[in-house]
Fold NDP-hexose 2,3-dehydratase family protein.
Amino acid sequence: MTQQSDTTADSAGRVHDRFGDAGAPAVLRRLSASPALVRRREDRDLADRIALSAATGRGAHLRTEDVHAWLAERRRADVFHVERIPFAELDEWRFERGTGNLVHHSGRFFTVEGLHVVEHDGPYGDGPRREWQQPVIRQPEVGILGILAKELGGVLHFLMQAKMEPGNPNLLQLSPTVQATRSNYTKAHRGADVKLIDHFVRPDPDRVIVDVLQSEQGSWFFRKSNRNMIVETADEVPASDDFCWLTLGQIAELLHEDDTVNMNARSVLSCVPYRDTTPGALHSDAQLLSWFTGERSRRDVRARRIPLASVRGWKHGVEAIEHEDGRYFKVAAVSVRAGNREVVGWTQPLLEPVALGLAAFLVREIDGVPHVLVHARAEGGFLDTVELAPTVQCTPGNYAHLPAADRPPFLDAVLDAPPSRIRYQAVHSEEGGRFLNARSRYLVVDADPAAASLDPPPAYTWATPAQLRALTRHGHYLNVESRTLLACLNAVAARSRGGK
């Protein structure tokens, strides 16, 4: 005999007892009498609207093929100038007495400190042990990365900004509508207001599409999070030369271009709630989460801040703090002029990698369903031990001197992949507000089954892109590099469907 539920919901979402309201518990009778208190948990139409935007390659305003010309025009319209300077020429920044930490005189923005990390591959210190010290950026305040959405011509468009960041190699890239630290939007810099910030500081809860805290680079930041948001508006948005409305299909095309869509925009776009059309996965969602929880539980990462002056293995010069072996990254200083920023001129420190990075997903189809090989990766700056990372995430030059056994797993499988196996590739800039010329080659590579079995090494597992998209609803599951690759996978899927 089939057991029936005691309650049903009508088309308006009101709750009714199958024996009638008189037999319902008091709380259900109250809810039934107050339909405004109960609503659907998800907007069922949103996935269709997102799919339409992803399939639309021609926007209501700017053509995709004209975006690069528009960005070039915005570069010409304002004065942008960045030059390296000695640390002694930093204005309002100083090396703190005693610690040697690089700090702003206001106590706001961020500091460059030291970090001491001890990692055990096991909860009781019985596994392999790694230990190192390094400079790190500490920025405890939570910033806002917000994209405004609006229906234009019946299609969702997203308001992107042509924003200058001093560390970008081409200075100006497509960024979110709002990209601001708390110090920025509370005007600690004594500059102009951040445009459109009110849509995100006080969002209409009925208009929120995405709102989640996500991490940034755990190898360069200490426990840094940003609020990733997409908020829809029906209001008129004042026209501005530095902003343009684009569909998801247009942005997908631009994600195939080098140094065009900045890291913060990629992070937010990775959280777009696309509909899952796949029939299943190698591992159930419960199995995937259990595996990930097990990885977090068994890894022991102990990171503590230390004075920058005491970091071992790094040398302090007039213009840079760098590793004794010339690897990894440097701490440098720059002077900036930017006509379209809230402050038109300033100086600041930046972290500068010494070489091009690499982030890659190996991909396999399992029973016709695409899967990617993810890595439960520990980084010293993560808030919670490990996050899901690409199959390969490293700077290859840092390992060139090592034998194959000591190189990251699957690195050679990615580097040696023939062009026929590469589904996606582009060079993207990392966060240009804190990093100087930080660029990584992002790849999606068809895996050779002989090199990437369905039973991968410890700390690796297969997951579908849809499973990863579901995890972006929650903070600190996917690291920023895997979120970029997820946005790129969404772009590959959009291109394969074809824009209209």
Remarks:
- Residues 288-299+353-497 form a domain with the Nucleoside Triphosphate Pyrophosphohydrolase fold (CATH 3.90.79.40).
- The chain has eleven helices and 26 strands.
